[in-house]
Amino acid sequence: MIKANATIKFSNGSIMNNRFMLAPLTNRQSHENGQLSDDELNWLKMRAEGEFGLVMTCASHVQEIGKGFPGQLGVFSDDLNDGHKKLTQSIKEKGSLAVIQLHHAGMRTPHELINEKPVSSSDNEKTNARGLTLTEVKQLRDDFITAAVRSKECGYDGVEVHGAHGYILTQFLSSEINHRTDEYGGSLENRARIIFEIVDGIREQCGKEFLVGVRLSPERFGMDIGEVKIVCQQLIDAGNINFLDISLWDCFKMPNDEKYQENSLLNHFKSLDFKDVKWTVAGKISKAVDVQKILDAGVDFVSIGTSAILHHNFPRLVMNDSNFTPVSTPVSEEHLLKEGVSKTFIKYLKRWPDFVKED
């Protein structure tokens, strides 16, 4: 049995004080120009105070055109650095690792946010997105790397490259979405190329002591579990990442695809040879017994979303009580406000049925 309060030492030397990571949660709390808001600062600072060993920001866009939601924290310009410096200082002084998630929404960018066509790996009629030119693909790669360098300068311990949930790197990886005929399309090697170039560039520019992770999701948006496992193993073998973040939507379910149902989704990824790369999973890890199940399955640390919204100190509560169960939903706005969830975030949470009590 792995104790939830056990420390982790990553291969780059970073120390995580326990097995809890705050999942990168969309919250819409920052300013429309990408600047950090006091609300978002408070939200993340409280999770560090609540003893999350690693506090990850929401998805933060590396290009203005890659904005995925209103009130998104940006990392596309040095003009945004002051907010990031304040944020990293607040997280790190509480003993947590500060990690920023690097993101580009691609064809999932709402047109009204950028006042132009969103972009993708290829033209996409359904979302009215246009395919990037080869020059633009290379610029996208370089902007991910530049954002990582900027993040390091702002005091982040590391970055996570967001390659999951149908955003732009998934759009390259997906054989359903990517119809390119150049070196970034066709074979799995070509479709995954941009992810490897980003990771390799970040390692080269930020050095071996910088924490680097990649988030992938194995289902939906044209993802094939077998292909995603191959990419994961290649990322591990290449030696330039320190952790993998596998977003499963539900850590306890069987795969949707019948051809992979000989194993649970979790066990498919457990079969990888992780070497010195740590891994985490996300998806319905909601109470203390869930945390222990995942750790006992061989996962290094857990990514907590919903329960982190309900309790800023979820890690502390679990470490003090192996039977801890969060407050049941729907919860009052008053409860959420006390947990550092702003009115803007609460409004967003009301999109989910039975999460916030009706007035």
CATH topology label: TIM Barrel
**Which shape, going by the Cα principal axes?**
globular
Mean pLDDT across every amino acid position: 97
Strand order of the largest sheet: 3-4-5-8-9-10-11-12
> Under the CATH scheme, which class?
Alpha Beta
How many beta-strand elements?
A: 12
Report the total helices: 13
**Topology order in helix (H) and strand (E) letters:** EEEHEHEHEEHEHHEHEHEHEHHHH
Q: Into which percent range does the helicity of residues fall?
A: 25-40%
What does this structure look like?
By secondary structure, this protein is an alpha/beta fold. It has a single domain, classed as Alpha-Beta Barrel (TIM Barrel), CATH 3.20.20. 35% of the residues lie in helices and 14% in strands. The protein has 13 helices and 12 strands. The strands form 3 sheets. The chain has an 8-stranded parallel barrel, surrounded by 6 helices. Strands 1-2 form a two-stranded antiparallel sheet. A two-stranded parallel ribbon has the order 6-7. Strand 1 and strand 2 form a beta hairpin. Helix 4 packs parallel to helix 6. The N and C termini lie far apart (43 Å). The mean pLDDT is 97.
